[in-house]
Amino acid sequence: MEPISDIPNIATLAYRYGTIKKNELELVNKLYYKRANQSSFNDILLDQEFVTEYQIGLLKLIQDYYIIQKQGVEFGKIAVEKGFAAKQDIEKALLVQKNAFKKLKLKKLIGDILVESKVITLNQRDQILEEQREFEKIKKRTLLGDVLVNKGIISHEQKDIIAVEQKKAVTPFLSNISFAVSDDNMEALALIKKDKSNDQDIDLHKIKNKLEQERIKHGIFSDSIIQCYIDKEYTSFPVARGTFPVRQKIEEIKYFFKKNNIEQEQIKKGNPLAEQEIFGKELKGKDIFGNLIEPDKLRYVPVSFIRCGSGARLSEDNKKVFAKKTGRPSLSVKNRFYIHPKINILEDADLRYGKIEEYADINISGTLSDAYPVTAGNLKATEIRGTTLEAHGNVSVSLGITGAEIRCQGSINAKYIKNSTIKAFGDVIVQHEIIDSKIIISGELKCPGARIIASNISAKNSITIGGSGSRVTEPCTLSAGRDDHILLESENIDAEIEQVKAEFNGLKDQKEESKKKADQIFEKMIQLKRFHDNTEKKKKKLENQISGKKEKDKKTIILLNKLNNKLKISISSLKALNSNKKKIEFQLKRVENRIKKIEPGIEKSIAELERDRTILLNWASGKKGKSEINIKVKASETTIVKGVFSEKILLKDYKKVIVKEINASDKEDNYSLKIYKG
Fold first, then answer.
1. Whose CA is closest to 660, among 484, 462, 469?
2. Burial 295-310 (b: 16+ CB within 10 A, else e)
3. Are 246 and 279 in contact (CB under 8 A)?
4. Residues of the chain with pLDDT under 70
5. Could you give the CA distance from residue 284 to residue 248 in angstroms, rounded to a whole number?
6. Judgement on whether residues 73 and 51 belong to the same structural domain of the protein
């Protein structure tokens, strides 16, 4: 257990006394709270190789001094209050205590110093110590049961029952975590409240405790996915999705091609790709609380479904899918059918070549460079430079990739990767080097002969490289076993949803603005109407005052003329306002009709995108990762290695090492990274 909060912990003392650096202190604190206080600061400092056992001994000695110094100050306050000693005596004793520790490393108690200097007697010292002990007992007596017993509200027996329940209760920091559960109990979102007054980090252990407390137990996403959400400091993210029931029939898809074979033969236009087969059986669902859901109790959602992408079309009954063109068939990660025609480019593909047909299998004899954004099936090229590429299949490059941004549903193979960003569902295989690049994948990094320089790598599976880092470049970060790639894909879906909503939200804003303007005009019209009516009354009153005598009626006629002018102006203003109001109401009607027209399409598009997210998260949850980093030749000092739950900075060069994330306990989530000789 770490010391009480107002005494510096070992890590803080190590930083204060120059044993560790600021970034190392930040890492130790992060790891401490990630492990839900299951590891001490001492263990983490030693595990990260930031300190030696001897240094830990010195730091503990310093910490002990802080403790006795604090106790000495409290002892001195009581001594002064009781009239046993003066303030000057206490200050002098504290100075003696400090010098004794500084020069001889002696931990002298202030009570003993005051007795030795004959300021207080042994009896007085013991009285103060007894009072101090009682005060500490009172401070520790914080259970609700004690308070209620002292006030006579409950009995001792009732207090014991409360104490048992309190042991079961979740610790206070879990009040920062809550869940938003859908109306049908089929989905739960974690909601994280950021509270500056609470410096406890949110970690996986706390999320799982809260899930258990809320009795959410079915369809919980993998630890890796939840941990990645936590690391990215999301304040809202999905943690569980239930299993939907199927009413009356189970529909399964029969495929007419090998869906996992990216290099398969082409299929002709008009040929079937797949069809749904129907069986006379129903399937019960299960909500996130583990309750069985009868098929007639929830909306119908099929076990599998057919969706078409480019080059594929649905039959009229939505049960079959056909090829709209000749090409290679594929099923994307998001369960959409595509047809990829073949294109051979016997030169460089750049701006001079022009746009390339989307979703084609492209074979480029030269270099793909500075081209329009390219969307392909499989892509082969001699080299890729400075372009944006999205591939639904594999990317194979004879030489290398430079200054490019690539999203890929298959694997990527190249001799080198420089100054590029790679996001892939499959593996990345590099022969020579990766420099100044960001690679985030759901597969494995296979580069046993390649050196990684100034790059950030994150892989769902293991990382195998020749070497990492150098003394003159930015440190590399190597993360294995993580779901960072799936989270990026989820963020892309969020961006697409916002894009879909953009027109709709713009129309809603326009509707509100038009409505506001119409209301403002109507309010002005009401005011003008009141003014007009009041003026009419004044006019009639003046007309009744006319006597027929010219001199007597002169002033009245002048006033009547003024009132008539005001009436004309008010009527003209009312007509103008009414005309403007009609124009705005016409625009408002058009906006409302447009909203009514596009709203179903927007809802459908968002539902499809959310379905994509569900598919990706389920795919990732079913795919087991591997937190292992194998460095075949040399790992340079300052390389940062990460698993799902822990991380470590290498403080020296290592040769032929394997870094694995292991759980130190079968019962607790107490993970750490261990270094083994390769």
1. 462
2. beebeeebeeebbbbb
3. no
4. 1-6, 33-39, 102-107, 132, 134-175, 195-201, 246-251, 260-264, 278-282, 295-305, 549-552, 664-670, 678
5. 10
6. yes
Question: Residue 3: its pLDDT value, please?
Answer: 39
119, part of any domain: yes
Cα 180 to Cα 643: distance, rounded to the nearest angstrom? 29
Q: Are residues 318 and 209 in the same domain?
A: no
Tokens read off for 275:
């069809």
Measured CA to CA in angstroms, residue 327 lies from 64, 262, 397, 407, 470 at distances of 75, 12, 22, 22, 47
Answer yes or no: pTM beyond 0.85. Answer: no
Q: Total domain count for the chain?
A: 4
Q: Of the residues 603, 621, 639, which one is the last residue of a structural domain?
A: 621
24 and 121 inside one domain: yes
Q: Which of 621, 645, 666 is the last residue of a domain?
A: 621
The tokens describing 536, both together, are 């009419």
Q: Going by DSSP bridges, is the β-strand pair 177-181/328-331 parallel, antiparallel, or unpaired? A: unpaired
Same domain flag for 174 and 127:
no
Q: For residues 614 and 502, state if they share a domain.
A: yes
Assigned domain for 600 exists: yes
- The answer to whether 643 and 627 are in contact (CB under 8 A) is yes
Which residue's entry shows tokens 């002292």?
Answer: 150
- Residue 197: per-residue pLDDT: 47
Angle between helices 122-140 and 53-81 (to 10 degrees): 110
Angle at 125 (CA atoms; ends 120, 128), nearest 5 degrees: 120
Q: Are residues 178 and 126 in the same domain?
A: no
Q: Find the domain containing 283 and state its range.
A: 250-331
577 and 585 in contact (C-beta within 8 Å)?
no
Rounded to whole angstroms, the Cα distance separating 85 from 77 reads 9
| Largest CA-CA distance found in the chain, in angstroms, rounded | 123
pLDDT tens digits for 362-397? 999 999 998 788 999 999 999 999 999 999 999 999
Phi–psi pair at 467, nearest 5 degrees: -160, 170
B/e letters for 646-657, b = 16+ CB within 10 Å, e = fewer, are bbbbbeeebeeb
Are residues 589 and 494 part of one domain? yes
Give residue for tokens 């993210």: 237
DSSP state letters, 282-337? -B-EE-TTS-EE-GGGS----SS---B-TTEEE-TTSSEEEESSSBEEEE-TTS-E
Q: Does the residue 523 lie in any domain?
A: yes
Name the residue among 357, 388, 359 with its Cα closest to residue 371: 388
In whole angstroms, give the CA distance from residue 191 to residue 176.
8
58 and 22 housed in the same domain: yes
Say if CB 333 and CB 619 are below 8 A apart.
Answer: yes
Q: Which 3-state string (H, E, C) describes 427-466?
A: CEEEEEEEECCEEEECCCEEEEEEEEECCEEEECCCEEEE
Q: Residue 229: which residues within 8 A CB-CB, separation 6 or more?
A: 190, 237, 487
Contact yes or no for 323/267 (Cβ under 8 A): yes
| 456 within a domain of the structure (yes/no) | no
Q: What are the phi and psi torsion angles at 136 (to 5°)?
A: -65, -40
